[in-house]
Design goal:
By secondary structure, this protein is an alpha/beta fold. It contains 10 helices and 12 strands. The longest helix has 20 residues.
Length: 334
């Protein structure tokens, strides 16, 4: 081998190495905004944690319309981003179309489902009904009126899944408890309508609800604000929202979207794809937020009951029925 060949070989190796280093991950937020204080913001926090710990950088985009989904996927894939991490079930069908055109790009989708998963896609799902069961128990133990509320975002099976777990948990404590449930809407705008969230909260309060669980993305901010203003308790979702109204948020049902994003970015181009990862209580994928902001609200009895139920669910001794099983719920009608 000549010196020139050796130098060319070394240059090529350096170029490949540089290319690998420059392969940034990308993050596409679902409609509702990056700073929704809930689902999307949890994804942002995971990406920020990865960036701070590694010194790496990532690309991101906040979608403004449904039409932007496929455009954003193709733009990041063309730019060499890897992996491309996405949030929300609605983008899954777009990934299905785009992934086959970019076989060397790895994609991640949180909350989506496809009958056949492309070889370069990892789907991540959560057992939200398990965590919702626990906060439902807490709501039933905290209510003084015997009525609790659930406010969902967009009326889709995923959100009914949250509500079903919540209702089962509440009724495990009090079989006669009254549960008022409302959805914000049937389009993606339901994720970012705090005014409507506030209106629904006021309507539920007029029906006697004194603890309201909001699983509605940015819309939930309006629910929590109104609950605090009206002197009742609320329950946050996805991110830990206890601090938003310290001493007035009973707890938050944690959905560790932040961990899912962090893990995907950490794996980088070595990410395993072609399947689905499901995270529940056993994997710490969902849980209940306990901190200084709700310490005065959570009794020792609540803590003991939640820990017992959590252990039973993980052990398989307590089955929380999934709404997905039959598109129905044994504890509430939507």
């Amino acid at each position: 081998m000549t010196l020139i060949q050796k130098l060319l070989g070394a240059s090529a190796a350096l170029a490949l190495s540089a290319g690998a280093v420059l392969a940034e991950p990308a993050l596409i937020y679902d409609l509702g905004g990056k700073f929704d204080k809930s689902f999307n913001e949890a994804a942002f926090n995971g990406a920020e944690r990865w960036a701070k710990e590694t010194g790496g950088t990532y690309r991101e985009i906040e979608l403004q319309s449904e039409a932007q989904r496929e455009q954003a996927l193709r733009r990041f894939a063309e730019a060499g981003a890897n992996p491309v991490v996405t949030t929300g079930f609605a983008i899954a069908s777009s990934i299905e179309e785009v992934a086959k055109d970019y076989p060397d790009t790895k994609f991640v989708n949180i909350d989506g489902w496809l009958p056949e998963i492309p070889a370069n896609l990892q789907l991540i799902a959560f057992q939200e009904h398990q965590g919702s069961y626990l906060v439902g128990m807490m709501a039933a133990m905290a209510t003084k009126t015997g009525t609790v509320g659930f406010i969902g975002g967009m009326d889709v099976p995923l959100i009914r899944h949250f509500g079903c777990g919540f209702a089962q948990g509440a009724k495990s404590v009090n079989a006669d408890i009254n549960i008022v449930a409302n959805m914000t809407g049937t389009t993606p705008t339901a994720w970012n309508d705090p005014v409507k969230g506030s209106e629904l909260a006021k309507a539920q309060i007029s029906q006697g609800a004194d603890v309201i669980y909001a699983a509605a993305g940015g819309t939930g901010v309006g629910v929590l604000q109104t609950a605090a203003d009206e002197g009742i308790l609320s329950i946050g979702v996805d991110s830990n929202q206890n601090h938003l109204h310290s001493g007035k948020v009973l707890t938050s049902m944690l959905k560790r979207v932040d961990v899912a994003v962090y893990n995907a970015m950490t794996a980088g181009e070595g990410l395993e794809t072609g399947g689905m990862t499901v995270l529940g209580l056993a994997e710490d994928g969902v849980g209940v937020a306990m901190d200084e902001h709700n310490a005065a609200l959570v009794t020792a009895e609540m803590t003991a009951a939640v820990e017992e139920a959590r252990a039973q669910i993980i052990a398989g001794d307590l089955n929380v029925v999934s709404y997905y099983e039959n598109d129905s719920c044994p504890a509430i009608q939507f």
